[in-house]
Design a protein that fits this description.
It contains no helices and 11 strands. By secondary structure, the chain is mostly beta strands. Strands 2, 4, 5, 6, 9, 10 and 11 form a 7-stranded mixed β-sheet that branches. The chain starts with a strand and ends with a strand.
Length: about 120
């Protein structure tokens, strides 16, 4: 059974920080790129960040660049999204996805994607 589980969401004040985790069971994340996505009410799902299977390449949406950091710990079979300087507009359900790429240094989608059910991040005073 291939599963991804997000955790770490919650309520935080503007300017605060959260660290989201994406943990895999039933398979090893080593050979997958990982993307973080988010969807706010009434909005389309958008890509937030990704990291290649090798860890050598990362990408960030302009809206989070400089504030969010993606990383992976293969020993724990987990990928993280460190979110700093949070803004109300960051409020959304955050999802992680594992997917194949054409080579280990790429973040570009090739196929075989697996998704978690999401974790809610609410940024409000």
């Amino acid at each position: 059974q291939l599963q991804l589980v997000e955790s770490g969401g919650g309520l935080v004040q503007p300017g605060g920080s959260l660290r989201l985790s994406c943990s895999a069971s039933g398979f090893t994340l080593d050979y997958y790129a990982i993307g973080w996505f988010r969807q706010a009410p009434g909005k389309e799902r958008e890509g937030v960040s990704c990291i290649s299977s090798s860890g050598g390449s990362t990408n960030y949406a302009d809206s989070v660049k400089g504030r969010f950091t993606i990383s992976r710990d293969n020993a724990k079979n987990t990928v993280y999204l460190q979110m700093n300087s949070l803004k109300p507009e960051d409020t959304a359900v955050y999802y992680c996805a594992a997917y194949r790429t054409s080579y280990s240094g790429s973040c570009a989608y090739f196929g075989m994607d697996y998704w978690g059910k999401g974790t809610l991040v609410t940024v409000s005073s």
